[in-house]
Amino acid sequence: MFAYRVGAAFGLKKTKHFHELPYILVHLDKPGIARQILNEFDSRDEAEHHSLSVHFCSSVKPSLRQHVEAIAPDGSNLSKELQVELTFLEKMPLDETPAEAIHKDSSHVIKKFCAGSQAFTFATVRLQQNLTKAESALESDFALAWHSWKSILQQPRLGVGLKHIKMQRPVKLTKNEFVRKVYRLDQYALEPWETLDPREKEKKKSNTMFNRQVTW
Question: Which of 41, 81, 145, 177 is an S-S bond match for 173, by CB 3.0 to 4.6 Å?
Answer without folding.
Answer: 177
